[in-house]
TrEMBL record:
The keyword Plastid does not apply. GO terms for molecular function: hydrolase activity, hydrolyzing O-glycosyl compounds. Residues 158-263 form the Glycoside hydrolase family 2 immunoglobulin-like beta-sandwich domain. Keywords: Glycosidase, Hydrolase. It comes from Anaerotalea alkaliphila. GO terms for biological process: carbohydrate metabolic process. The keyword Hydrolase applies. Residues 41-141 form the Glycosyl hydrolases family 2 sugar binding domain. The lineage of its organism: Bacteria, Bacillati, Bacillota, Clostridia, Eubacteriales. This is Glycoside hydrolase family 2 protein. Residues 270-561 form the Glycoside hydrolase family 2 catalytic domain.
Amino acid sequence: MRIAKDMNRDWKFLKTEGGAWESVNLPHTWNAQDGANGFNFYKGACWYEKRFQVTSQEEGKRFFLEFQGSNSVTDVYMNGKHLGQHRGGYSTFRFDVTDGLAVGGENTLSVKVDNTVYEDVYPQMADFTFYGGIYRDVALIVAEPVHFDLMDHGSQGIYITQEKVDREKAELTVRSRISNSREATEKVRLWLEVLDDAGKTVAYGAREVFVEAGSTAEAAVPLSIENPNLWHGLENPYLYSLKASLASCNDTVDEVLIPFGVRHFEVDAEKGFFLNGEHLPLHGVSRHQDRKDMGWAITPREQDEDMALIKEVGANSIRLAHYQHNQYFYDLCDREGMVLWAEIPFISVMGKSDADGENAKQQLVELIRQNYNHPSIFFWGVQNEIQIGGEKPLVRQVVQELAEIAKKEDPNRLTTMANVMFVKDGDPYNFMTDTVGYNKYYGWYQGQAEDFAGWLDGFHAANPKVKLSISEYGAEGIIQYHSETPKVKDYTEEYHALYHETVWKIFEARPYLWGTYVWNMFDFGANIRDEGGVQGRNNKGLVTYDRKIKKDAFYMYKAHWSKEKFVHIT
Ligand code: GCB
């Protein structure tokens, strides 16, 4: 049976050539302090090293090293041998380290991580700090020679497709990839069982699969759940579990448990978002993954705290900007009932020497395969404000290809993207994805908050078939600044609150908007910024960077969105 060994402790870290090694534990970033202090933070290649033992009882197993996120170009060496490189800072990646591992002895794992900006690794230019380091968990997975595939773009090797779901029945297809590293063909028995939340079996299926020596085979098994309990957002985030196991010669050799939920949904260009046939206006916030003095090297404690604040404000949807977040957070969203927009960091610009956006495509495939089974995800976002100006037809083509890849990987979810102001109304670009979002900043970067009404109605009248959302809107609000007569762009907490109150009224009266996403739930580190005298930070959050202070606008949304009862004092 497989086991995952925690590899987070007792690393050595070296920042600069010729410098001193220091002891660290993961998650770790070398920019925890300098990353939020203005324009200069350390970008370059740093080294991590860890020694560990593998006991002789583990002879004959397969070993995989799993990194859940390391920013952004990572080279892995085992006992001096280069195992490979991963480009991209947000997805899980694994290396099969079996060959060259000293079983019954000590091993040295060396990892070079580089957060230099490369032209072909996304993102290159964006309004957030690119914290360097192995900032998520590392594990050593020890598996039997026959196991569910661990090498398919960092996925679990098991994909649950919801073919057709309604109140009477959920028809599923479970596609399993099975790997055999033995030197002979193996006959394995694949056993799939769906358990309800009380652990009772509600569906099952089995298959015999022949897996040739040194290869991977796939098996698709249909399963159906009668009268399913539907996953229904905050109201009923009901989860089943899929227990998938493999037996060879009657011995169970691998087993995984995958939580999942069943639901159906659609977006209507006039009426908005529907979950299980019921209208559900998406009251959304965006979230970045960093925290003051920690950067991206956060732990479950910070993730839980973020979720508690998002629930408190009453949001039912999150845009996880602008990259793949930690698996822990997607699991949390499944359990809490958040409707998610998940996206890749294809932001602002395509590298001049990048011919076809290869790295964006790779990150999209990783995002989808790694997160395929999360019921909370409804939208795959393929780009954010990527510049498609006249001389850049190639960028349009790459966006089109990304949308096609997302559909091919996952025909059952909707594609989306976050456009910037300069996409013209009526532009066919608006139809490359199933739905679109616009990042709009009336009342901050241009005009007045009230201007939203005219723009929205004009856009909707000119493009009645576009399924429209507001993927970002917001204003800076710095808690040290106050005014009794707040004005546009004065950075005060009062203007921030007034802006949101004005804009929210406009959105609420327009049911054709399928979702709206406050930019941002939390202030975040943005090294390029110098806003209102605060260097290195974007202050558009409803809550401060350290999560200690909820701004006035937080309470405004809480009053509108939350079901919590308010006491009116007269
Ligand atoms: C945007 C970007 C986001 C920025 C935001 C802002 O449109 O997508 O990454 O942080 O504007 O605050 O300017």
